[in-house]
Amino acid sequence: MTMAGRPRQKLRILCFGDSLTAGYSGMGSVFQPYEDRLTQMLEMAFPDTDIDTLEDGKSGDTVKHGFLSRMRRHFETTDPPEEPFDWAIVLGGTNDIAFSIPAEEIYERLKEVWDVALSRKSKVLALTVPEAGVGAAGRARLDARRNALNDLIKGHEQEGFYKFDFNAAFPYFALSEADRTRYWDDAIHFTPDGYDLMGNKIGVELVSILAKERADLNPPVTPRKRRRVFRDDDNTFEEEEEKGPNAIDRGYVVVRRKDLD
């Protein structure tokens, strides 16, 4: 129970994806999932809410071959059934792009993955695929495939579906050399500090969405303006009672301040 005597709210979130969701770093010697920092941010933003997150990031997995069956295990085939998720945060496509799988094919499979969660009344926050710090020789082709997929993700519209342009929020080439060293571990993965920053950025986006939802459900009540009472407002003037030439319908008009409010 809260201090006000109301039951605490609950929020359950699935963080789903590949090695970037798992927090892979140091050639697999360190794992620092963004889930940890995301949870901290949500707890700070909503102290009246119990935050429960589950990380399911599988290194090397592709959207085309692995994502759908894994997502179904969370929403359709668990025994005993898992407690329902309110949100699924999905990031995938990095490995598919590396295998030259066409953007449209990745997108079609992502839609199936998103629909598993959406059909179970879970909302989805889809992340765009971040840059890869590859050399100039192969960068143009890689950028074209990634940008094509990200454009499809950003253009998707569906009830309960939200998207966050993580690619724009967490660049590689636009960073200074110092920041790149601090946040990027290799051409694909982040350092522990980078995964914390990832959690911060996703957290800011999700907190903003949740805060707006709560505001829409509980709009502020505008207090009624108190009518000011002025002297003589309740007086009856003799012209109002006149029946002769001074009667009010002979040209007199009585306007009280309360009639103007």
Automatic annotation (TrEMBL):
Keywords: Hydrolase. Gene3D superfamilies: SGNH hydrolase. Residues 15-197 form the SGNH hydrolase-type esterase domain. CDD domains: SGNH_hydrolase. GO terms for molecular function: phosphatidylcholine lysophospholipase activity. It comes from the Eukaryota. The keyword Cell membrane does not apply. Residues 221-244 are annotated as: Disordered. InterPro entries: Ester_Hydrolysis_Enzymes, SGNH_hydro, SGNH_hydro_sf. The keyword Phosphoprotein does not apply. Pfam families: Lipase_GDSL_2. This is SGNH hydrolase-type esterase domain-containing protein. It comes from Lasiosphaeria miniovina. The lineage of its organism: Eukaryota, Fungi, Dikarya, Ascomycota, Pezizomycotina.
